[in-house]
Amino acid sequence: MSKQTVKKPIPTFKTEEQERVYWESDPHGQDSTAHLDWAKAKKVKLPNLRPTTKTISLRLPQHLLDSIKVAANARDVPYQSLIKVWLQEKLHSH
Questions:
Q1: Which of 22, 57, 85, 90 has the smallest C-beta neighbourhood within 10 Å, fewest atoms?
Q2: Which of 1, 12, 14, 3 is nearest to 35 (CA)?
Q3: 38 vs 14, which has greater pLDDT?
């Protein structure tokens, strides 16, 4: 006879940070199997999932910003998107 274990409810979190702290709270990390029966899990696709972003303030000399906007316009992309691409490329080149 198999013994069925009762799963603990997953707490409700107000922020992603609170959830992260919970799952990382004990030295070994919270064991999700205490909450979920992974044998019943189903694959899902999340086509519109976007990474969490944070707004920052960045002061640039006006001539530099103008040059970035010209480069972005030539590529037909928003200048902020171009800045992000360039930053990512620079990080991965080292």
A1: 57
A2: 12
A3: 14
pTM of the model: 0.50
CA distances from 63 to 20, 60, 66, 67, 69 (A): 41, 8, 5, 6, 10
Is residue 7 within 8 A of residue 34, CB to CB? The reply is: yes
- Distance CA(87)–CA(83), nearest Å, equals 6
pLDDT per residue as tens digits for the range 6-27: 778 888 999 999 988 888 886 5
Residue-wise pLDDT for 1-11, tens only, equals: 445 567 788 88
Distance of CA 79 to the CA centre of its chain: 22
Sign of CA dihedral 75, 78, 81, 87: positive
Instruction: Provide CB contacts within 8 A for 16, sequence distance 6+.
Output: 52
Percentage of the residues of the chain whose pLDDT score is greater than 90? 50
